[in-house]
Amino acid sequence: MTESRDSSLDDTPTPAFSLDCQYRYTFFNSAHADVMKTLHGMEIQLGHALSEYYPNAEDWKIAKTHFDRVFDGVPFHTSSWTSTPATLQRNFETRIFPIYSKTGEVIGISVVVADNSERQRGEERHTAILQTAMDGYWLSDKQGWLLEVNNTYCSMSGYSTAELLNMHITDFEALEAPQETDRHIQNIMQRGEDRFETQHKRKDGSIFDVEVSVKSWPTEGGKMISFIRDITEAKRVSRALRESEYFFKESQRAASIGSYKADFLKDCWESSEVLDQILGIDHSYQRSIQGFFDIIHPEDTEMVRRYLEDEVISQRKLFDREFRIIRKSDGALRWVRGFGEGSFDNHGVIISIIGTILDITKQRQVEEDRLRSETQFRLIFENASDGILIADTRTKQFVMGNNKIFQMLKYDLSELQKLSVADIHPKEELPLVLEAFEKQHRQEGALAENLPVKRKDGSIFFADINAFPLKINGKEMLIGFFRDITERKRAEKEKLQMQEQLLHSSKLASIGTLAAGIAHEINNPLAIITGSTDELLRKGPDLSNEDNGHALQTIQDASVRIGEIVQGLKTYARQDSDALDEIDGHRCIRETLLLIQGLYKKENIKIEPQLKAQHFFLKANRGKLQQVIMNILGNAKDALMSCNERDIRITTQNKDDEFHLTIWDNGPGIPEHRLARIFDPFYTTKEVGKGTGLGLSISHAIITSFGGRLSVESTPGQGTTFSIILPKLEKTILVSQKVPQNDGEFQLAGQALVVDDEKIIRDILSGYLSSFGLDVVQAENGEIAYQMIAAKEFDFVFVDLQMPKMSGDELLVKIKVENLGRHTKFLVITGNLLDEFSAKGDNSLGQKVDAYLHKPFKRNDIIPVLKRVGQTLP
User: Fold this and answer.
1) How far is residue 223 CA from its own chain's centroid?
2) What is the spatial distance between Cα 723 and Cα 735, in angstroms, rounded to a whole number?
């Protein structure tokens, strides 16, 4: 059957026409006439050759090649862009089919043209945005196989698009096992969405951290839209920031047109071959009126029937209605649009309807896809984690923005649309900003890093801006993605400050180690010198002359001073210990001043100690207290360098069961606005390289750990006072450091054991003890001493801590465990106070120790110790 052509075809919205073998018009509808007039400005006529309406011979030659193929029986299909006289770009999809005679001879061709311009532009625009997005994106099915990816994720993972489209999510998931990933996918499909952090594996095997935002898309069999952000850098400097992308799916293309004639008197209808293909029927199908209704979707049957009876037949309106059919050949659901005009007798009875049916399934899908794509685009655009701005490249005026950019800039859309690029950047930075804008417009670089951006309130933040050009409604635009890097810059700054502090701490640790080594090596020979000169001076009458006695006294005085300095070095070397011990506060202050007084004297700084507190004994860490004092004195020294008169006064006094230690300087003082932050970490008023801003913060933490308080008072021009308030220690085993008067008549009966690996020190101490009336024996290490104590109980045991084979603390532990020497008084010989036990982590040993004797010592230093412990002998 040849295809029927009559006036009913003129109502179809899709351009259509047919040609005979000489390429002359045998039919065209009004839609095609309108298109030809728009594109070429010509009025077409039946019987005229199509070549008459082509603008040039070359174009007709190309078109004729396609037509000739169709006359050979081969249908033709193409899609292309065409410029109109108004310079508008239009995309047309063309389908050409042969028209056969009843004998099977091709007698003409039928042409259908569909305008897909807007859909094509939308797809190209959305694809461009998606591919240039700063986040990775993929579309996967509900089993986890990838269906779409963008260039960003390809760059992240090192895989090509082709490789990824053959991969499953488990192929690059680095944290979850495949079974866990499968369960995770099913949970997402049930919940609808998820956001989580995980790790992915690149093609080269390296691992990178990602944040995944995923949303299920239950239509079309179930899919998942995922946006992947590389958060490796953010994990490292403590800046996290997200972004989203959008996507859309390509819709179905063009439709075909079939013709029909329904005869209501004969209860039958005729159809063209194209309509048979649309309906999925062949020549054997029963073509009754009811047979046609049987093809209509059951849910649309009643609607079509009423429309036909109430409007087309009763009111004699043209038939124009969209409805669904169930194709008979394969059961597929198709959308169609029916057109037709009825023929009635004199009594108004319907005789027939002649018309066309257009398969609009693809158009409906395209429209649904377009609406879904726009919805997805709006959803992604409005909820992206990066700020998005779109500006006209010619005027640089803003035309659109998302919620995130409104939050960043503190403008709403109406306000932003009145602004241009120059309004959101500092004036002095505009040349740099505009240069970056033009480069992005020319596509010479999408990313502009570390650009200053000005908010509505005038405040500034820094952003990385990734931008690319696109066309919207024929205008050149630049879309920019703004990522706030304020937190990243702050973290980088803190990282540099921390590195400086670590370097400074490393230097201090090296100095402390050196100090500890020096102190340890000096103490023993110093004890020998001190003890020997003490013995010579005590035997003064045996010296040959007075000058020798004076020289010996000078040697002993110098030895005492060296001992005090060494004690200060040992204290400084122990400041990394957290143990709190019973200490003499005044002694700690004096040792600190001994270490620094020479340096301060060279800078003409006078330090005046006024140590008036009584029984200044504390529960604290001597090294850390010394660190606090040195920090405050160091700040005072720096402040005084701009003054002519340079005075520092250190005062101690008793107040309300507390000790008050104040350090005052007559420097320029501290401004009031800086006092509130004086103890904040990294806050410093010194120039770069002169301070870390951690000294006072650490000092405040140290004093707080002692149960005390650190405060500051300052008046510009009148100096600064730091006050340290510490709780008083009620009971102590510490011995006063005052040198007792010569007590040569002191006598004490009993047996004593001296344990020290230095023979000369053993001999000196043994000589002192013998002069007091004690019977003395010696042991050169802990093992020998243990055997002697196990065999016999002594009245006094003097034990050095650092010895080979068995150290002093090991000996005391063993004695305590085995309950030996129950009535013995144990005296520890040490170069420090309790710190050796603290360093070993066993402060309970203090319960076994009755007193301490510090190196270097003299005979008179031993007398008050023996007097105190001797009073408790049984």
Assistant:
1) 29
2) 27
Residue 374: Cβ within 10 Å count? 14
Helix axes 585-602, 546-573, angle to 10 degrees: 100
Spatial separation of the C-alpha atoms in residues 826 and 842, rounded to whole Å? 17
Peptide bond into 452 cis (omega under 30): no
Query: Percent of the chain scored above 70 by pLDDT?
Result: 77
How far is the C-alpha of 78 from the C-alpha of 623, rounded, in Å? Answer: 88
Look over the chain and give the mean of its residue pLDDT values, rounded to a whole number: 80
DSSP class per residue in 250-317? PPP----EEEEEEETTTTEEEE-HHHHHHHT--TTS---HHHHHHHB-HHHHHHHHHHIIIIIITS-P
CA 467 vs. chain centroid, Å, equals 23
245-290: pLDDT as tens digits: 333 223 233 446 888 999 999 999 998 888 898 999 998 998 998 9
C-alpha span between 150 and 860 (Å, rounded): 87
What's the order of all strands across the beta sheet hosting 775-779?
Answer: 775-779, 751-755, 796-800, 825-830, 851-854
| DSSP result, 532-579 | HHHHHHHTGGGSS-HHHHHHHHHHHHHHHHHHHHHHHHHHHHTTT---
pLDDT digit string, tens, across residues 611-659: 998 888 888 888 788 889 988 998 899 889 889 999 999 999 998 888 9
Residue type (1 letter), 597? Q
Please name the residue ranges forming H helices in 316-387: 361-383
Least confident of 21-25, 258-262, 461-465, 742-746: 742-746
For residue 201, what pLDDT is reported?
92
Q: Kindly report, residue by residue over 291-347, the tens digit of the pLDDT.
A: 999 999 999 999 999 999 999 999 989 999 999 999 999 999 999 999 999 999 888
Q: What is the DSSP letter of 616?
A: -
Q: Quick one: tokens of 255?
A: 């439709």
Place of tokens 């269906």: 147
Domains of the chain by start residue, with CATH: 7-115 (3.30.450.20), 134-236 (3.30.450.20), 257-359 (3.30.450.20), 387-484 (3.30.450.20), 505-727 (3.30.565.10), 751-870 (3.40.50.2300)
How far apart are alpha carbons 626 and 508 in whole angstroms?
14
**Tokens standing for residue 514:** 């050196």
Q: What CA–CA distance (Å, rounded) separates 574 from 566?
A: 13
* Beta strands 223-230 and 136-141, pairing class: antiparallel
- Give the range among 76-90, 312-326, 543-557 with minimum mean pLDDT: 543-557
Alpha-carbon distance 625 to 616, whole Å? 13
Residue 801 neighbours by CB distance under 10 Å: 23
User: pLDDT tens-digit profile of 343-353?
Assistant: 998 888 899 99
**What's the sign of the alpha-carbon dihedral 497, 503, 504, 505?**
positive
Residue 743's φ and ψ, nearest 5 degrees, are -125, 60
